[in-house]
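Input for the complex:
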Amino acid sequence: MTPEDVRAAAELVAFGLRAGARPTDANPYGVLLERFRSNTEFRDAVEAVAGGLGLSVLGAPSRGGIVLTTQPHSVFAVRMSDLRSTAMTADDKLVAGLIVLGLAAYAFPRQLDLDSTDVKLVEVAALDAFVRDAIEQVAALPGDEDTVDGQARIAATVYERMPSFKPKDRQPGPARGCTQFAIAEVLGWLVERGAARVMPQMGPTSYQLTDRFRLLVADVAGGEALAALRNRRRQEAA
Amino acid sequence: MRARWRALVLTDPVARLVRNAAFANVDDRRFDLRQLALAAVDIAVASMGFARQVTLGELLESIADLAARMAPTAPREACAEAARWVIKGLLNDAEGQRAFVYPFTDDDGRREEFSFKLLQLQDSADGAIVQASPQAVMLYLSGLDLDVDDAEAAFSVVLQRQLRDRRFEAAGRTAAQAERVSVAMAASLTDLMEATRRDVRAVDWNVDVPRRLERAREHVESRVAEDAEVLNHVAAGIDTETDAGVRQASGELVETLRRIRQVHLDLAARVGTAHTVFIQAQLSQVFARPVHLRLLDPEKELFHPVLRLPDVDAAPVTEAFGDRVLGLRVPRLLHLDSLVDALLAPPRAPEPEEFDPERPGETEGVDLQSYPPVVIAAAERILRTAGDEPASLSSLVSAVDHLSGTDVQDAIELILLSALWAYAPDGAAEKPGDEDDGGLSALVASLAVEHSGATIDTPVAWGDDLLVRFEERETR
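Predicted:
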């Protein structure tokens, strides 16, 4: 492995950090990506460079490009709650988290969807309706050990009590303080990270999820959320 | 019965989107939604035969154009809305873009589900690209539940019989159908190659694909030879034919046959590169990470349980999930050449901006940085005094005497800026006359400015003085 190879490996990591960069057959990104996909030594070099920067390589789909995620304490790591320029209340954080989770449930309704490269379109009002339908479904279920209805406020209630749509004063679109505004905000964050794209041709509040979103949900986020859920159950049982 | 039932069911999504159009305020009397849907399928299938497949944006544009041709008086937004409605219907957007599912009950009362998709979206560098499913290819072939090879062979026999009977118009229609079958065949092969690129194990490269490639190769070989024969036969007939109608039908037939030949040659090229695709995919994927089964159901295992948790317990789970999906941020990098722009740009707001509401009485389109007409007129009058003989900038500045208050400062500033602009025009700036600026551009264009050698020393400008001459330009 020569210094040029290491430089090329670092270049590929840099491409992965640019949300807007897209590989094609002929561009430098595409060439490096193909090298990553077909050369084990180069792949090891890329993973080593990424690891040194506090990143992990999740995958390298030929159309979407290299997908990176952060390791704990990485210089690139940021918490969801820090993404808004103003401080988020506990309810705002919970609603934002439920929206990301709801988005994953909407996009991947079955286990095998996480292995399919089909991409989904999302529309703000449709996602809001999906989340509210899910809240109705869980409210209709009989209580179990997870449910403490009547004793404390459940997560669904926090979302349900926030109005779906609050109009802006003399402007189109939702105003802050409603769930459609929160959904548009979360989708905006995903667009900045290359996990979604705006699709104005399909409507003013339409987005397309990219393959990057699928890999992030399937390979990292899903596992960590499940671990957090199990952890909470263990604590309750103890 | 089952095959016919399936062929019938394939058109149900189209019927459904027409039925429900009224709910989306799409006027199905104005736009022929069935035709728009078939056109969308046609475009998606045909694009699969090309190196670059159609994107969702391009497909919407094409369908909106077709809708506009159907209803020339309709507003463009209504055409775009009709196009969106049709594409959403074909994607089964009403059910989360899942497969269409129809239950079938056989003679013995056994029920089974027939599920299929028509259009699917895949991620690409150019945005979401549209892929037609095998069922969409069937719809493209008028619901024929036939192997495309057999369909094309059948059309070939029919075509030869029609030509023998000199039924050229019917032969033209058959040739057009045969062309569609050839395109469908290319689309099927493209689908196989795409599946191979994604996962080489998804396709049987031991037996099935080599057999299909061999059939395609034989097919192309025989078709090219037969097409050439038919083409020569028809072309020769045109020369001797005296009936104008027959000559025209024969001419159209020749055009169609030429297009079909091109489709066959494209198909041959595709067959020729298939093995390279396989080898490359194998090479890439053999070194890839071992694929593990992702046994996660986000809805049932995460979303629903979290919704039922107390909010304090749900927060760590949703944060763990959200932090991992959204938690990579690259610090903003500044380049020297973009530093000024970046500093002048409004701060980045990650959330959608809240706009201040408009207040009654506010006038739209007021440029707060423009000079009042009275100031422009005064500056022009003073600058025109340099028309007979050149005047120094300092003398022009000191000539501003009859104005009052801020107008004096504005007029002096305008004279200084006009002279400076005429002395050293900004190449990147808009050309004079690009916009309505109250005649300022024309004023500056009339100035000839050079270095005078003297100095200027006023409260607002000091340094080298300039010599200004006003030259009247002819207005075109």
